[in-house]
Amino acid sequence: MKRCKECGYMNDDQAVSCQACQASLEVAYAPGGQPDPTGYRTTYHSGQFEFPVPYHIDRDSLLRCDADWDYSVVQFIAEGGFAKVFHARGPKSGREDIGNVAVKIMNLFELHPDQQKEFTKRFEREYQVGQIDSDYIVRTFAKGFISANPFMVMEYCPNGTLDHRIQGGRIMEEDAKRIAVNILCGLRDLHAAGVVHRDLKPSNILFDEHNNPRVADFGISAYIRNRMTQINRKGNLDSTLGTPYYCPPEQRKGIESVRMTNPRMDIYAFGVIMYETFSGGQFPFSRANEDISVDEYYKRAEKGNYEDIRHYRSDIDPVWSELISRCIYPRPEQRFENVDEMLDLLGHQSFEPGNPEAPSQTGAVLLRVINGDDIGRVYNLDELIGKKGGSRLSVGWLDQYDPEKNDIGILEKYTQYISSRHATIEMLREGDKAMWFIRDGQWYDKDGDFRWHLSKNGVLVNSLETDESGSSIHSNDIITIGDTKLKVEIR
Predict the structure, then answer these.
(1) d(CA 78, CA 87)
(2) Domains along the sequence of the chain with CATH
């Protein structure tokens, strides 16, 4: 049988074009140059081409990482989506004993061939997000491949999920507050790095060996902006983004949701989680065991009418009613602006950032890509201004056929949310200091109409939308353009 690389349909061996979509049936090759009858596309790693195939793991199986560290499998933990998770120990090469770890293996072989490269890239991003220095998220240590399926090594969290604890019975207010504060601190660290979780829910809150809650599974969902579904190898649709009860209304608005993506999406999900935690599994906009459709649930959520949490738990502090209420407002601008406001309301000492450092001539101003298709790329604004002259830099989609169309061309492979002429960065001198601003849009002639044209999907600075008037940018600010986030750094 021949698998179509376009739609995944299994065709007869003699077919030269797909019987379902008429695409040409090109031949894929397995390691050693032999034709691959399954039609899988090859992937490249460890200096050779391979295609992902089903793998087999037993107790004591060794998984070798890119750093040549071996991890010994102890037991299977769970399976979900396109991945399996195992408990392991390592390394086994005479180095310092790291101890217990979790290994997450992506079942790349289960995916439609056209989705494999994209999901591998997003799996890599999940690993990178796990490198954020935070005591409140599940961090990643190492990565590798098994039968061309990528895996990552993570912190071990053996004490279950928040979902299990909610199902297990009443959670006391003191415990609930500790859980809430830890989740919020994890979100604060993610948001500071320019990452929006977008799939926060009780099953993604894990408890580590010391019983501390950690935010997990933030990688793949955080970066998928362009679709709610993916195609698996059988040609069926698989939901990959967001869990309906925890998604705010704006997250269902297709391309509009990209422009609106900001920390308030996670804040909404947090409010639903705390409602569920205190009520013992109830959701704000549906009753226990009520059989309603997702569309009906969202209609109720958009109206914002729900039973106050103290209807279920009259024993808890009224502050929880205020907290939850301000989290799950239908309109994002009505919610808390950031996590620090919520920590303050709970009486927890929140992180107080220092005064923003104004860019000046004594330090180079850099924009570093921390989320997008070109992570790690750095743009030196001072150098770009020096080479170009003047005080303006144009920002937009990187056109491979005209790479100099913008002074800063942003690579975008999997989405189409960056306009060809998206934004303008300007430098304004005040004495010996250079102040920097970013504005939505550019001056250009569009069909004979020469004026300032705004971008299609907008520009955000620290999750707040800017316009043609612009916003000043400072050290550690996060600029969002399409699916790309850039962090301002002063060197």
Answers:
(1) 9
(2) 1-39 (no CATH), 62-155 (3.30.200.20), 162-345 (1.10.510.10), 365-490 (2.60.200.20)
